[in-house]
């Protein structure tokens, strides 16, 4: 019997980071960082003190979105295209089919259901 793949373990660890509360830590530096806000479903800036805190602490907006993209809502985007896509629904814990309109949207968008599951499923 084989254990879980490394990809699935990595995805679980990434998800745990995004669920932790924002914590500036006890130190007093003012380092701009980004954290995943579970209420607004987006990455937001905060001032990190420079020590301790939580793992929900990313150096750039890009890294925050890469790590927490499965937590974003499914957005169809603007424009008029109808591209078959899949997005992770964090409430149902499933990948859902939607038609991406070709511009706008966010990074919770995959071209195949398999890729969506591989990146976002915690199983």
From TrEMBL:
Organism of origin: Fasciola gigantica (Giant liver fluke)
Entry annotated with the keyword Signal: no
Origin: domain of life: Eukaryota
Keyword check for Disulfide bond: yes
Gene3D superfamilies in alphabetical order: Pancreatic trypsin inhibitor Kunitz domain
Name by which UniProt lists this protein: BPTI/Kunitz inhibitor domain-containing protein
Domain (BPTI/Kunitz inhibitor): residue spans on this chain: 18-68, 70-120
Lineage, broadest ranks: Eukaryota, Metazoa, Spiralia, Lophotrochozoa, Platyhelminthes
GO cellular component terms, A-Z: extracellular space
Record-linked InterPro entries: Kunitz_BPTI (IPR002223), Kunitz_BPTI_sf (IPR036880), Prtase_inh_Kunz-CS (IPR020901), TFPI/VKTCI-like (IPR050098)
UniProt GO MF annotations: serine-type endopeptidase inhibitor activity
Keywords: Disulfide bond
